[in-house]
Amino acid sequence: MAADYTATPFVGRTFGVTVSNLTKKFGNVTVLNNVSLEVRPGEIFCIMGPSGSGKSVLLKHIAGLERATSGEVRIGEHDAADPETRTKVHLALVFQAGALFSSLSVYDNLALYPREHKLCGEAGIRERVMHALSILSLEKAAQKFPSELSGGMKKRVAIARALVMEPQLLLYDEPTSELDPVMGATISEIIATLREQTAVTSIVVTHDRDLALSIGDRVAIIMDGRIRATGKAEEFRAPKDPAIANFLTPVIDLKNPRFKQLENNNE
Ligand SMILES: Nc1ncnc2c1ncn2[C@@H]1O[C@H](COP(=O)(O)OP(=O)(O)OP(=O)(O)O)[C@@H](O)[C@H]1O
Ligand SMILES: [Mg+2]
C-alpha cells in the first residue's frame, strides 16, 4: 500500500448527522424503533449490532434511500429525505455488497459519477480514478469487469468509487467484511487517515470489533431496531451490559451451543 492517499482533494465543509426518533416499519414489522443519535462533524461513528438488527436500513435513511415511517434524519441543517440535499452535500455510500454495475469495467464504474456530474474533463477524471484505484492497490484491475473480481476486490472497488465522489459525508456498510485481516486493517487505516486529512464525517456500520474500537471515536450498539448503548469506543472494551459483552466477545460453548437454543426458541 505505497500509494499516497493524503492528497485526495475534498471540497467545502463537513457535516454532522442527527437522527431523531426514527421509526421504520415494513408492513407490520418494526425494523427501527424510535432511534435517535447524533454524529458530530468530522467524527468516525461506528454502528454495531447483530445481523438483522436494522443497521443497513438505518444507513439507507441517512443516505436518503429509504423513507421513515416517523421521525427524521438531518445532515447539517438539511433533511436527508429531501432529494435536493444530495445537491448540497457530497455524500457517498459504500454498499454492503458493493453495488457495482456489472456491465461496466472497474474504471468506468469509478468514472460514472464524475462524468454524469461533469466534474471535470476526461483527463481529470482519469487522474482521479487512477489515484483512487492506487490508494486501494487496484490499478491492475482497472479494465476488469466486476464478475472477474474476488469479493474483497469488489469491496475495495466500491470504496475507491466513493473516494472519486470526493465526499463530505462517507457512509460505509461493512467495509471490512470479506477482506483478509491485513486488507481489513488497511481499510481501517484508510478510513482513519481520510478523516484526519480531510475532516470528512464517517459513519461505519461494521461487525468488526477491532475496526470499531481502534478507529471509532464513538460507537452505537443497535439491537432489535433500538439503540442499546452509545459511548466512546473505549467504553466498549469491557462492557458491563451482558447483552453487549456477549455480542462483542462471544464465548464458544460446545456444551451449550447457541444453535440448540435457537432450535428451542423456534419450538
Ligand atoms: N426492503 C425491505 N423490505 C422488508 N424488510 C426489509 C427490507 N429491508 C430490510 N428489511 C428487514 O429489516 C431487518 C433489518 O435489516 P438490515 O438489512 O438493516 O439488517 P442489518 O443489521 O444490516 O443486518 P446484517 O448485519 O446481516 O447486514 C431485517 O429483518 C430485514 O429482513
Ligand atoms: Mg446490513
Topology:
Elements: E1 17-26, E2 29-39, E3 44-48, H1 55-62, E4 70-75, E5 78-79, H2 85-88, E6 91-94, H3 106-116, H4 122-135, H5 151-164, E7 169-173, H6 181-198, E8 201-205, H7 209-215, E9 218-223, E10 226-232, H8 242-248, H9 258-266
Parallel strand pairs: 3-8, 3-9, 6-7, 7-8
Antiparallel strand pairs: 1-2, 1-4, 4-5, 9-10
Residues 55-56, 96, 173 line the site of magnesium ion (MG).
Structural description of this entry:
With 267 residues, the chain is α/β, with parallel strands linked by helices. The chain has 9 helices and 10 strands. It starts with 16 loop residues before the first strand and ends with a helix. A hairpin with a 2-residue loop joins strand 4 and strand 5. The radius of gyration is 19 Å and the shape is globular. The site of magnesium ion has 4 residues, from helix 1. Magnesium ion binds next to helix 1.
* Strands, total number: 10
Percent helix, as a range, is 25-40%
Q: Give the spatial strand order of the biggest sheet.
A: 6-7-8-3-9-10
Radius of gyration of CA atoms, rounded to a whole number: 19 Å
CATH class of the domain at 17-90 and 167-266: Alpha Beta
- Helices, by number, come to 9
Mean pLDDT reading: 88
Q: How big a fraction of the residues is strand?
A: 15-25%
What is the chain-wise order of helices and strands? EEEHEEHEHHHEHEHEEHH
- CATH homologous superfamily assignment of the domain at 17-90 and 167-266: P-loop containing nucleotide triphosphate hydrolases
CATH topology of the domain at 17-90 and 167-266: Rossmann fold
Shape designation? globular
